[in-house]
From TrEMBL, chains A, B, C, D, E, F:
This is Hydantoin racemase. InterPro entries: Asp/Glu/hydantoin_racemase, Hydantoin_racemase-like, Iso_Racemase_Enz_sf. It comes from Pararhodobacter marinus. Belongs to the HyuE racemase family. Its EC number is 5.1.99.5. Coiled coil: none annotated. It catalyses: a D-5-monosubstituted hydantoin = a L-5-monosubstituted hydantoin; D-5-isobutylhydantoin = L-5-isobutylhydantoin; D-5-benzylhydantoin = L-5-benzylhydantoin. PANTHER family: PROTEIN DCG1. GO terms for molecular function: amino-acid racemase activity; hydantoin racemase activity.
Length: 231, 231, 231, 231, 231, 231
């Protein structure tokens, strides 16, 4: 099975990290392909998200042509998922949807820890659309820029851990979702430090796409996700 | 006051129609500017919508620079509204949000009549996000292509009227929202033929932007709609 | 266009203030008429609200007879709106509905600051009915009596400002709705002091009625808001 | 224990009928007192409802002074309940709230059969506020005027039965709530004819008030239902 | 009328206490029967709850055979209510459903104070299912083991009172529901100490069953609660 | 990885069928273990469900002791899932939760086709709890007994196909969930006949458990799903 992990922002280092995270958990017979968008260097808010989508769709269309089986959109804002589902025949999953649905299978409530405050309302709106607001205690920000996760010597990981501990203490949540694509390598350490399931989007999205493809399922093509009309 | 009516698809005829509709209801001292996107010729589904947004944002950014007071995004799928709100300082409203909120002020329930079946789930999801699902009886399609509304000799308007009559009879709705940018010139005739308020998105969006600007209100800039971060 | 601003309580000074606020933002060709109810001196809770409605309806009926185009019910508890919509042919809007719907067009979340604690559950219930609970962070009280806003030397305005600052800090809201009819003259100052859109109900309700009338829309008369049955 | 059954409309015959229904089910040691409002002859829509409330509140206040233990507001539109709860110290229940909450204890879903179509949106809005929309299959009208239930030779009861049978067949509901104060004497016959619990509001409201009073419970007085402020 | 109060856990002392509480409020002509399950000694979480249900159902079936009129399941987790409703012909009510519905009739919002933290998500899920999440401010735990309520010299009752006072101060709730079967004897004292209605599940469940039986109502048998199929 | 597929009813043939379905889609390195409950021969309603849970929990506890990695509860009513999650350390998923969450990843709306009408409200309540009511068009019954699926010569499969076709035509759903454990072998045929994704619970539940285990995730143990308390 071939799965595309497509990073809609244009920072190749983040793609590489996501691909590493994906390969770490994928089955040996799953081939993980990486692709990088042509949009902004990081996705911080609605504008960045919107600007990243055409490049993302080009990658999805190319992969579809090449016979891809399923697609992970490696961004927590779930940009362009509906559009990707129109273009692809296999399953397409974004990080937020994958991880909050995973959290709902492992706990009675969860909180999300994201990077920047401006992403909070974006994520809240996604979770409302996914129908899981009643299980989401709070969307929190560790107040770190997305790219800080890539910097040497940054204390970003400690900030994330501390925010998780605050989430457990204040929100009484039972699991924590990492609201950013770049934290996959931290989950084991964070889970050990905090005692709760810490869920990384890339990891669970890859496994869920594997699961749906393995179950023989594809995206429905009869209405909302039908192939785009020819013009 | 200057209001931009920006059609995110690339069909100039639809822009012109929207501008005419806007000018018909705008105050004499409101200047209506029109702009046309660079995306698909019509917006039929998620893919078309996503592809239209960068061109839309370019128009919004240009208008913002030129001192626009408020913006109407003249498409019923409300593409890129969050991104536009980050770019613009004045109010930005899409047709779906404007018209379902107007309907909620004039009736206890409404149905939506759109063009193509594939737009139904897009609109349902928007209305869920706007919190008005409990007032929306049903989103219906008159099963006509978007561009048919522009064609001479098409029976599109009769199809729309008949679908409205079915909505009243079957859904027991009290108002009908036209789920498409190109029907503004039909509202008076449709309202007379059917006996209910028939709400056109361009019309009410223009008036609502006028209202918010006239009230001295602007888009909040402290978090979700803050100006895009410099990269 | 003629718009009636009807204050359902019997305090003429509040009517006058609302009319001034309305005229400040109305278009030059909109005539603002004021009317005062015969109910309690202020509306603080369900009982006061209920007692104010018959007097309110009498004013609405008189205005309807005299050919009014639209009506603003100048009280934040939105008393008798459904009944007014049965009596009037044009649009009728209350302050809470107008301002929370405006807030939803300008921000991803808002809080409400009202006067007395006992109004909090009334307003929460209204917002639940309007479908906007998911965007409303919190309804807060500045703990001031309604009529204190009219008193010389009261520190009511500072209390309101401080409550708004607390709302921004604690609720992470992006806009604030003033939950009272008597604060229209404070919005500019409050917005400057706090950095967020501060929304006054009279102001936005007048502009929204203007917008709906200007769009040629009237209240639906086929079911829920049909003219009262003759007895 | 003394319970007031107050009919907010001014048709004494309906009060008498409600009192008879109440006495039929009340405990022998419960004294049922009847009172009639000064509003419209029947409550058909928002306007009638609003006009009935001051008279209703006067009866409630008088009964409160005389030491009433609990109050049933004998109208299915639940007029002025919040205001009555401010005035009364004991429990106050309206017919809609009592009967849909009873239905939710006896079935997994229910439909409501009311008299006039114009009451449908009023009842839907109440049920939304009570949080039971997910259990309410549909609010239906048997298309009979409220007062027809009082008329000799009317076929109103057959119409109600037929609508219940349609509700069971089409809505797959498991219980039916009678959406009108005047049908208490029909429940046994309707239940036998249709095979489902048929719930009359007066009956269950009286029993629920008895239950709450018997449990030693009173209306909370610390905020939303606090005694009206002195002016 | 005969009402069974069945305690699904196997601690006879808790049954006795519930029966005493039930008899304290039941009408003189209501016979209260007690029964004790064969499950765990206390119900603390999903596992205990599940293990208690077969014993509970055996008691319900026996009582049904013996002609019981209605049933109270004396546990706040509402275990096996749907199954009991299939077995019984009369009304069946659990403590959580009874008390949150009672709270919704007496206040505009309530909080729940339960014993152990692990019961919080169980209760939150129940309240979500009952449709009352929008009125429930918070489910809190007084952090006491269920059986401590039975122990001499325990400070459990003071802990409960203090948690109620915190609920009023922090949650701004207007009523408090006691989220445990064993606190019925504390309600009067707690209500006096705190100034809000304090609602005990056994008390209100008994009275609600009395009310429904007294209204002549039984559980619907046409679908969701139909008698179990013979195998 | 070892996954237990536990059928909570006592019909060994259904277990075998589920195990076959599970093995058909599991990875070669996943070992599928089967277990059969001691409850009713089939689960048709709340009573059967409740009676099946202790036997189910015994199997889960035994498997947990033996080091199982994850568990599928092979019944569409999701019996005892919370209790299983307390007992197990790995992920536990029921068929309804697995398949409706899968459907939400592949389509914008789905319907469920179950066997008996009495299961409809059970499933509706589950979906409400999972937060997906807004995507579920309708829960339908093909009106066949659960065990008919096992009988030679039954026309059960044609009935299911016809109900799916009706769901597509009438509900405008884009995917169909099979609301029963015994239809796994029909999905390919049904999907071909109907043109939409047809989702079988066993299949997707096994793949989702594989996914969560493969992602290194376990059930949260800090509150709602903590190990049962010792008594």
């Amino acid at each position: 099975m071939k799965i595309l992990v497509v990073n809609p922002n244009s920072t190749k280092a983040m793609t590489d990290k996501a691909v590493v995270a994906a390969r770490r958990v994928a089955h040996p017979d799953t081939e993980i392909l990486g692709a990088t968008g042509t949009g902004p260097a990081s996705i911080e808010g609605h504008f960045d998200e919107a600007m990243s989508v055409p490049g993302l769709l080009a990658e999805v269309a190319a992969a579809e042509k090449a016979g891809i089986d399923g697609i992970v959109v490696a961004c927590f804002d779930d940009p362009g998922i509906g559009a990707c589902r129109e273009v692809a025949s296999g399953p397409v999953i974004g990080l937020c949807e994958a991880s909050v649905k995973a959290a709902s299978l492992l706990s009675t409530s969860f909180s999300v820890v994201t990077t920047l405050p401006r992403s909070i309302p974006v994520i809240e709106r996604l979770i409302h659309g996914y129908g899981l607001s009643h299980l989401c205690r709070r969307v929190r920000s560790a107040a770190i820029p997305v790219l800080a996760l890539e910097e040497e010597g940054s204390d970003a990981r400690e900030k994330v851990r501390d925010e998780i501990l605050r989430a457990i203490a204040e929100d009484k949540c039972e699991a924590v979702v990492l609201g950013c694509a770049g934290m996959a390598d931290l989950t084991d350490w964070l889970s050990e430090e905090t005692g709760v399931p810490v869920i990384d989007g890339v990891t669970v999205a890859v496994k869920m796409v594997e699961a749906l493809v393995g179950a023989g399922l594809k995206t429905s093509k009869i209405s909302g996700y039908a192939t785009p009309n020819e013009k």
